[in-house]
Amino acid sequence: MQTKMTYITRIAVLAGAAAILMVMELPIVFMPVFLKLDFSEIPAVIGAFALGPMAGCLIVLVKNLIHLSSTQTAGVGEMANFLVGSLFVIPAAWIYKCKKNKTGAVLALLSGTVCMTLTAAVLNYWVLLPLYQAALNFPPEALINMGRAANPHVVDLKTFVVFAIVPFNLFKGIVVSVITLVVYKKISPILH
Questions:
Q1: Of 24-33, 92-101, 151-160, 163-172, where does mean pLDDT reach its minimum?
Q2: How far apart are alpha carbons 111 and 95 in whole angstroms?
């Protein structure tokens, strides 16, 4: 019973930290205004490395459920964040679980970044962007114009994904990975 309670407590603390980091968004130059960088995946990756892939997914889920109370996207943004965050955390956690050293961590985070970037591109094109448009009554032209304002290469939905979604997720994955590499070993003794 004690270990289960400790596990749940660790997930709750990391999810709380992730929820706080999620509201501290930073705009990124050369990106559409609604694509903002937050550092909320860092506690999820740390939790996934220390406690396993399921813990990482639970942290991503709980932070999005907390954020849902202040949503401006009818829940679509939180669903997107959960899916994309999980696509980063799960492969990273599985690889790190097999090779728990610095090389394994780098490989895990690199794999998580690539997996997140590629699958987020597909999900955004086929599912998430159409959902945003339907839920928020947002015409595709408005989305494309927002992308074009940041990058003149954006001319349609495909180029929006290629020149906005892909670079954003690559950048976010790299930033989260670097910070995780710097802080994980310092924090992991507390989690173990």
A1: 24-33
A2: 8
Domain span including residue 76: 2-191
| Contact in structure between 62 and 103 (CB atoms under 8 Å) | no
Using the Cα atoms of residue 182, residue 173, residue 24 and residue 45 in order, give the sign of their dihedral: negative
- Assigned token pair, 157: 């939905």
- The CATH number of whichever domain residue 175 belongs to comes to 1.10.1760.20
Whole-angstrom distance, CA of residue 90 vs CA of residue 99: 14
The number of folded domains in the chain is 1
The 10s digit of each residue's pLDDT in 72-127 is: 889 999 999 999 999 999 999 999 999 999 999 999 999 999 999 999 999 999 99
